């Protein structure tokens, strides 16, 4: 096993280059020597500040949020150059220094004058409007650097709409004054729900994830997956599915997880006999799905809890069955592909020993305690995450290979601060977008327009919403995508009778799947770079593997029982069993193999039967089981005939 891993690492010497190409967050400035120490100290101070503020701060929310964004702007300019590829050491141009000072200073102005600004109501001086404009421009520029152009196109469209058409003040300067006041100085714009949740919950969980990674839990997950599935047919692909689901749950980054775990799993899949485009697709689809995997589910789950107004434990409970269906679909497909190709598993002597892994089970303690504390409502999420950080440090002391030393504590705090920049910047711009929509009344117009186009047909509204989520998600982080869709499209579905939680899950899922949907499937392209395969073929394979995520959201909008809404324990068990059988039918039909090659007619029957089983209804379940059973029996007969020949 060690030789295979070393070989995998040797084959992927360009991992950093792949990250920089497909993950905009990885295009950092190069700091060395004293400047590196200074920047590191700022990042560490930021992480400690976030932990302190979320646990102990009692001052005004405006002070907390504006100081948070001031630090994000400061760190954003220090971390990300104006354009990709800049690698000059210890260099920051004068215009970046000006932008950093002015942009951060604008938010600091709000921080130190928050009480007076709140009390002055709508009476703003011209210089205050200028300060607000500077702050907005600085945020947009930082977002351009670390997130990309697509989200800015959306933001600029709504800003232009507000200033040119949406606001009614006859004076253009009057419209600018009103816009800036609402977007910059109130909690209806930049400092609205997304940034509030980011500063209060997400930042601490990102820091927790950074500490968790340094305990060696990613390596533990990979070894655990090898132990559980490595010996079976097509073992490396099954290992990729399990380990990527577990690692992606913690990392929250589709591209980052694809490259990190893929550098080990993809070469092993290719060596076993999987085609390169299939190997890259398996890793990309599994890594992307990590964001829907309870209990962490990436950053957007915290936002969903706040938007919908339900406890976070409620969100992760509802997400269990859809997540199982997603990964079951991928797992079944890689198994059938392995059987089709006649692939073997990893030799037993190369697999880790279960009892050796059992000795490191303590590495899961921080996650287990976090879930217990949050799901049982024993303490707030941020407090649970903070204490879990201390537990992660404690359990690492038992692992001689990955002890968290004081230097690793500094590294984790630095990485946590750096990773928060992108999420916070995207949340800030999402706040500008939702603020623009709200202040102009565009939200109601959009809702009425879509409802009119759909003509009260829910399926049309769902399809249009899906397209919006995927198109926007092709260049926008999941968190920002969800924020925008929650403000624009989720209310449309709710207006048409979809339960609020199901509507929000719908836009959340399709925002995530954009990372593997052509033509801009960044996670699939990153996987193809490691697999040395055709990027577009890899993306289409990834979409096929993740077929459950294209189906399940429609099902739980029509029948929320799939999210365990308005149902009972017996119904949940029935839905779980029939849905898994249904995913098996869909996966087999799309793969075109079950004991033997399937003819087109049988493939169609298998897919139809599978879809009927996923729909939570007794009538469709009976019909679906009958259709899938016919397909299985037919394929067994075909297989028997082939064996006799």
Query: Low-confidence parts, pLDDT < 50 over ≥5 residues?
Result: 1-13
Q: How much helix is in the residues? A: over 70%
Strand content: under 5%
Largest sheet, in brief, is: 2 strands, antiparallel
| Terminus-to-terminus distance | 39 Å
What would you report as the Rg, rounded to the nearest angstrom?
25 Å
Count of individual helical segments: 32
Mean residue pLDDT: 86
Looking at the structure, what is the overall shape?
A: globular
Strand order, sheet with most strands: 1-2
Number of strands: 2
- Backbone structural class: mainly alpha
Q: How does this model look, in words?
A:
The protein has 645 residues and is mainly alpha-helical. The chain has a domain at 567-645. The chain has helices at 2-11, 15-22, 33-56, 61-79, 94-112, 114-119, 126-146, 149-166, 172-184, 193-213, 217-229, 235-251, 254-272, 276-289, 300-308, 312-318, 320-341, 354-358, 365-375, 381-396, 406-440, 442-454, 458-473, 478-488, 490-495, 500-513, 522-531, 535-545, 547-558, 569-591, 600-614, 618-644, and strands at residues 593-594, 596-597. Strands 1-2 form a two-stranded antiparallel ribbon. The longest helix is centred in the middle third of the chain and has 35 residues, at 406-440. The protein is globular. The chain starts with a helix and ends with a helix.
List the main descriptive attributes of the protein structure presented here:
645 residues; mainly alpha; disordered N terminus; globular; 32 helices; two-stranded antiparallel sheet
